[in-house]
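Predict both folds.
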Amino acid sequence: MAPVDWQQNWRAGATPWDAGASPPALRSLVDRGAVPSGRILVPGCGTGYDLATLARTDREVVGIDLSEDARKAFFVAHPELPGSVVYEVADFFSYTPADGFDFVWDYTFFCALDPGQRTSWNEAMRRLVNPGGVLATLLFPFEDPISGTQGPPWPVNTSMVRSYVDGGFEELETAEVNRTHPGREGKERLVLWRRGA
């Protein structure tokens, strides 16, 4: 299977993954105070709805995506936000910011990666998340057990992701997601991981 040309998809407007808003699970995390102040990263941020949801005066929110078209769409949709919000066109795997992050939000990013990139995803997360920081993974499409092999999005489950973060992160919380975007009901699980020292 040929790799997905994400930039071409954005140029062509072929973005079926774009739900038009942040997932309710992220808004719930924000509302219950589970997202810290400090530096926040959203890889594969697309149109940047999650950047807007996370934006606050005591946070520096950074989104990265491969597509300049997605970046342009973000600034059209969100011309003014509180705090510091930065959108960079960059490759997640070679992204080397000056400072690490206190919280990373991964939704429809891990599942969009070719399975051969998962070890590199783990290595990058261990490099980017500060010791004691939190990696929040909203797993989609969740299948337990995994029966399909077609993607992206590639079916995932907690055990699979755990096999990649073991040794670097401690599992803090795992929860079924009751409210989600239409069509994704029963297909999401939220797992929070704390980066070790």
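Second protein follows, with its predicted structure tokens after the sequence.
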Amino acid sequence: MRTWDRFIRRGGLLVVLSGPSGVGKDAILTEFQKICPNVQRCVTATTRPRRDSERDGVDYYFLSEEEFRRRIEENQFLEFAEVHGYLYGTPRGLVEQALAQGRDIVLKIDVQGGIAVKRAMSEAVMVFVVPPSMEELERRLRSRSTDSDADIERRLANARRELERIGEYDYLIENDSVAHAAEKLKAVIIAEHSRIFR
């Protein structure tokens, strides 16, 4: 055994990607997977209705509230939370399997859920995505044309609360450009694999 082997990280990384609704987490992950195709994306479960552009098992696992609550009872979620009136949860088995196989996995999750994951798995690498400005965040939310004015106002109010928790994360990425943000996420993963493990 080499003298430095004890300082090398073993196994995969769990990367938690959080940020306000509309900040562009999905777009960043789509671009990121083009440049880092070996990093797995963790598909989370939700009771939120499926949008026209979304696919079950790809964007989310869309579950009824009854099915979601059954899985809570069976301890199938690493974490779960109610966000914007719907339940969201991280399938425990997907994360544990990827890490056990030495694969990196990225979990796109709201701030409340991200902090819960960090409590459950202290080795998680926490990445917070911010918009260039609150005005730009509002523009992005409105341009989706998927939410009512009341929903947008609720999401903006939630965003202000979520931004207050940036200090609980390890890295900050401003999504001024999706390609640039994806490159920064790649740099985070390279840095974490190069970190001296104690």
